[in-house]
Amino acid sequence: MSKNILVTGGAGFIGSHIVEEAVNRGYNTLVLDDLSTGKKENLEHLPQDSYRLIQGDIRDNNLINQVFKDNAINCVFHEAAIASVQKSITDPENTYSINVEGTRNVFEAAVDHGVERVVFASSAAVYGDDPKIPKVEDMSPKPISPYGEHKLENEKMAAKLSLKGSTKFVALRYFNVYGLRQDPASEYSGVISIFINRILSGQKITIYGDGKQTRDFVYVKDVVAANYLVAEKIARGFAIFNVGTGLQTDLNELVGIIFSLSSNVDNIKYELSRAGDIRHSLADIINLRRETGYKFDYEIKNGLSQLISHK
Ligand code: NAD
Ligand code: UD1
Predict the structure, then answer these.
(1) Is 253 exposed, middle or buried (0-12, 13-18, 19+ CB in 10 A)?
(2) Annotated catalytic residue: which of 147, 174, 294, 298?
(3) Taking a C-beta distance cutoff of 8 angstroms, is the pair 93, 150 a contact?
(4) Which of 134, 188, 234, 282 could pair covalently with 84 via S-S, beta carbons 3.0-4.6 A apart?
């Protein structure tokens, strides 16, 4: 694979793992991040001279073009976004400006500067609450949150741009990603990081709804593997793949596993379910497996026990 890599959102949870892999592979690695939810500390375990961090906003079109002009980037992993479905509901304008307009800047600059490939973070949220599971890539999308709509708009934008220049785009519809460095501090964070943090420190957790909603939880290392596989193996101009495990876990089961691994006593309150919340989410990963050889390494218990052992 090409060697000059740009990771937008590379100081965030998933982005920092993609950066780590790029560094391990010896690629020239550039990170662009405004450090809004990401942190420099997420990269501090890497040798200081193994990557470069530019602190900047993907909405700054001049900056983005300058970055591409100066760095002969071959491959972009675009992770920068507001990652929270809830935040997109409480703050739709700001989310739109980052998730759609910022993404447009990155995509258009990549095409204008002849970047070979852009792999970007889309989401299972594009499927919305269609009761059909598992979700297959060719189902018609029915997002029920601004966040899901924005991710769908990113995909449409990439499909169009792929016809314009030589840049190849791959949209990865991540399901629910969890792992080390997922920030537990915000109410907008992913459920696993919040639950582990609260359970390990003996605090009460809140389950929104009856806890019977299901998710396909995928460990961040498997998501990183999917990113590099598609970057290496997908040759067409535009493609979409689910990234998950094909396994379904409900929230009650999830907390049961965390309690059993942490030996803390159950301390749960149930509240009304959240607006924009999807009931069931499960990935069909056959296409990704067939076209890239993807195989996930962590089912939920392994992933959680690895994560808890790092705490
Ligand atoms: P995160 O918040 O840890 O990472 C997002 C990063 O983008 C942060 O480092 C943040 O500082 C940066 N960023 C935000 N706005 C920016 C801007 N305007 N300019 C530059 N940088 C900016 O979240 P994450 O969970 O690592 O999510 C990464 C990507 O994956 C996002 O696109 C998200 O929508 C997508 N995704 C995440 C999940 C999940 O379960 N975590 C699932 C599906 C899709
Ligand atoms: C998550 C991702 C989103 C991604 C989507 C893909 C985050 C913050 N969001 O959204 O980026 O596109 O998966 O599927 O990573 N819950 C509780 N208690 C809590 C927190 C959450 O019960 O304290 C519940 C939620 O109501 C929801 C489930 O847990 O039913 C999962 O919530 P969350 O981790 O926020 O993820 P999604 O909304 O699925």
Answers:
(1) middle
(2) 147
(3) no
(4) 188
Q: Is the pLDDT of residue 1 over 90?
A: no
Question: Could you tell me the domains of the chain?
Answer: 4-177+217-245 (3.40.50.720), 179-214+247-281+299-309 (3.90.25.10)
Q: What is the pLDDT of residues 30-83, one digit of tens each?
A: 999 999 999 999 999 999 999 999 999 999 999 999 999 999 999 999 999 999
Report CA dihedral (29, 31, 32, 36) to the nearest 10 degrees: 170
Q: Is-contact 175 124, C-beta < 8 A?
A: yes
* Residue list, ligand 1 pocket, CB within 6 Å: 9, 11-15, 33-38, 57-59, 79-81, 83, 98, 102, 121, 123, 174, 176-177, 190
Phi, psi of 89 (to 5 degrees): -85, -40
- pLDDT tens digits for range 149-185: 999 999 999 999 999 999 999 999 999 999 999 988 8
Spacing, Cα 157 to ligand 2 middle (Å): 25
Whether the predicted pLDDT of 120 surpasses 60: yes
Q: Which residues contact 100 (CB under 8 A, 6 or more apart)?
A: 150, 153, 154
- 96 is a catalytic site residue: no
Distance, CA 33 to ligand 1 centroid (Å)?
Answer: 10
